[in-house]
Specification:
Elements: H1 8-15, E1 18-22, E2 25-32, H2 34-44, H3 46-64, H4 68-78, H5 85-101, H6 107-114, H7 116-127, H8 135-138, E3 145-150, E4 160-164, E5 166-168, H9 169-172, E6 177-183, E7 189-193, E8 204-207, E9 211-217, H10 231-241, H11 245-253, E10 262-268, E11 273-279, E12 284-289, E13 292-296, H12 303-308, H13 321-334, H14 341-348, E14 352-353, E15 358-359, E16 387-389, E17 391-396, H15 397-401, E18 404-409, H16 419-425, E19 445-448
Parallel strand pairs: 2-6
Antiparallel strand pairs: 1-2, 3-4, 3-13, 4-17, 5-16, 6-7, 7-8, 8-9, 9-10, 10-11, 11-12, 14-15, 17-18, 18-19
Length: 454
């Protein structure tokens, strides 16, 4: 892309930023006030923002029949008045930086892109009219596997956290950003993210407050309040400003719109605490401890949330999410007292299918592979759906203290994915041709926040 001339101020902005591409990941360091770090982000990731938005414009139209502009217009009606100015400035900076680098995009588009998960999953089904449901949600695939452990469950008694993102392979091809943020105010953060996003969304965060954060979304959830604050803003604000697990929870509860409902798994390496925070719209569950484990497998434990705001979560059903529910129990028992960063990599890449009792990478396993699944997984997921593990991330207390983590791009198990061969074998997914990328096998890669200050 042709890059326009930079002003002296913009050059000063960019002197503080850094980009490094490694093993499928893009590491991006940004710092300063909201607009400044946004400009750095937009300028250095302009090509990726362009690519991600091209894909999502296609997918959102395919999924809903409505255009991206339709979603953008509604996002602008709902969200700006509920978002702090600092983060509105950051999105404006992303738009301006990308435009200056050669890809013209508006702040409205960036806001709608950040809100995409809650727009399509929570706002659209009731707003779209009778029977409206995005195509990929009709299949109800699971979304992410994760755990956090501490105390007697881990080697040395420290916090250990692991997460793998599950998503449609065409969409998740763009989830390869490691965003290292040094804001003028609040906590430093290093997280997995997406080009143009101000939050993680995938979600995997390490903050200088001591907090370690990940989640698995709640499937079958319905509930949304268009008069309240979007999830992407609340999760970013909570991570940047909270100093404890309880404070993080309280910021997420404040003016909660129910968007992108998640089972949040949190740790604090300074206190040794871990927590499970299941957040819907009207209902939530929260528990915290200094000894043991919590797992994420997309079905909430909280009884009220599961019954009053969800349907078809697969809870307790080993044909569905219940398979990972049981497998986490087995792994926690098997490795009690031994869980560390090395073992976390193995656990997040696990392919044991409790339904068949065999090693069987499919939609029921912790490292998800719907592309190998013949459709036997509970729910309505069609055979060989191109959805599943897109990455793996792990961190322990020592890493978090040093503002670092390790990640693998592609399947958490390291298996490669060839998009062209997959479509040739499964022509029913020809609609994704040109929108999915190959995923070669990659090594685990360490990432560390730069020790810089504005």
């Amino acid at each position: 892309m042709k890059k326009n001339n930079l002003t002296p101020q913009e050059k000063t902005f960019l002197e503080k930023a850094k980009r490094n591409d490694i093993n499928g990941w893009i590491y991006l360091h940004i710092e300063g006030d909201g607009y400044e770090r946004g400009f750095q982000h937009g300028y250095l990731l302009a090509n990726e923002i362009k690519g991600a938005l091209q894909v999502i414009r296609y997918l959102i139209h395919y999924d809903t029949g409505s255009t991206f502009e339709f979603f953008m217009q509604n996002a602008m009606k709902m969200f700006p008045k509920h978002i702090d100015q600092e983060f509105m400035d950051e999105m404006q900076g992303i738009a301006d930086g990308s435009t200056k680098a050669g890809y013209k995009v508006s702040a409205d588009e960036i806001l709608a892109w950040n809100a995409y998960p809650e727009l399509i999953c929570n706002w659209w089904p009731p707003a779209g009219g009778a029977g409206a449901q995005p195509q990929h949600l009709k299949h109800r695939p699971h979304k992410c596997s994760a755990f956090v452990a501490t105390g007697k469950a881990t080697r040395g008694g420290k916090v250990v956290m692991a997460h793998t993102t599950w998503q449609l392979y065409g969409a998740s091809d763009w989830y390869n950003v490691v965003l290292d943020i040094h804001p003028k105010k609040g906590n430093r953060m290093i997280m997995q993210s997406v080009p143009g996003y101000i939050d993680s969304s995938t979600d995997f965060w390490i903050a200088s407050s001591g907090l370690m954060i990940c989640e698995t979304s709640i499937v079958g959830f319905s509930g949304f309040d268009a008069t309240k604050s979007p999830e992407f803003f609340r999760s970013r604000k909570a991570t940047q400003y909270a100093k404890s697990i309880n404070e993080w929870r309280n910021i997420m509860l404040d003016n909660n719109n129910g968007g992108y409902a998640n089972i949040w798994l949190l740790g604090n390496h300074k206190t040794g605490e871990i927590a499970r925070f299941e957040l819907g719209l009207k209902y939530y569950g929260f528990e915290k401890k200094k000894d043991g484990c919590y797992a994420g497998y997309n079905a909430p434990e909280n009884i009220e949330l599961r019954n009053f705001e969800c349907s078809n979560t697969g809870y307790g059903d080993i044909r569905n999410n219940g398979a990972r529910q049981v497998r986490w129990m087995e792994l926690f028992k098997k490795y009690h007292g031994k869980i560390d960063a090395k073992l976390a990599k193995e656990m997040i890449a696990d392919h044991h299918d409790v339904y068949t009792g065999k090693e069987n990478p499919c939609g029921r396993t912790i490292c998800g592979h719907f592309e190998h699944d013949n459709g036997s997984t509970g729910g309505s997921t069609p055979p060989y759906f191109p959805w599943g593990s897109a990455d793996g991330k792990i961190a322990d207390s020592k890493m978090a203290q040093n503002m670092s983590f390790e990640g693998i791009w592609g399947h958490a198990c390291g298996a490669e994915f060839n998009a062209d061969k997959f479509i040739d074998k499964n022509p029913q997914y020809n609609w994704l041709k040109g929108y999915m990328k190959n995923r070669p096998s990659q090594p685990w890669t360490p990432f560390k926040s730069l020790n810089k200050k504005s």
